[in-house]
Amino acid sequence: MEEFLLGDLVQMRKKHPCGSDQWTVIRVGADIKIRCSGCSRIVMLDRADFVKRMKKVIAHSEEPIRGTNETDF
Ligand SMILES: [Zn+2]
Q1: I need a labelling partner for 20 at 20 to 30 A (CA). Which of 11, 43, 57, 67 fits?
Q2: 37: domain range?
Q3: Is 68 inside any structural domain?
Q4: How many domains are contained in the chain?
């Protein structure tokens, strides 16, 4: 499994109905929240589900957002 952090741009295996397959990770914890790059829709998945559906990390965030990443503390 590829490492992902808050703020990373990730590619999902399945395209969103809007046509985009790129999402930004906006919350990391027991659940993962991602925001679609195409339509800005926010989707919440549990971690196992997210890992299954994620294809790869496209770009790591240069400045990870601190404070809401429950797993890093
Ligand atoms: Zn979308």
Answers
A1: 67
A2: 9-61
A3: no
A4: 1
Please tell me the distance from the alpha carbon of residue 61 to that of residue 16, in angstroms, as a whole number.
Answer: 22
Residue 36 within any structural domain of the chain: yes
The reported pTM is 0.81
Q: Which helix (H) or strand (E) holds 47?
A: helix 47-53
> Distance between CA atoms of 61 and 71, rounded to whole angstroms?
17
Quote the ligand 1 centre to 28 CA distance (angstroms).
20
Those residues whose beta carbon sits under 5 angstroms from the ion ligand 1 are 16, 18, 20, 36, 38-39
Which one has a higher pLDDT value, 2 or 24? 24
Phi, psi of 55 (to 5 degrees): -90, -55
Residue-wise pLDDT tens digits, 10-63: 999 999 999 999 999 999 998 999 999 999 999 999 999 999 999 999 999 876
CA of 73 to the centre of ligand 1 (A): 31
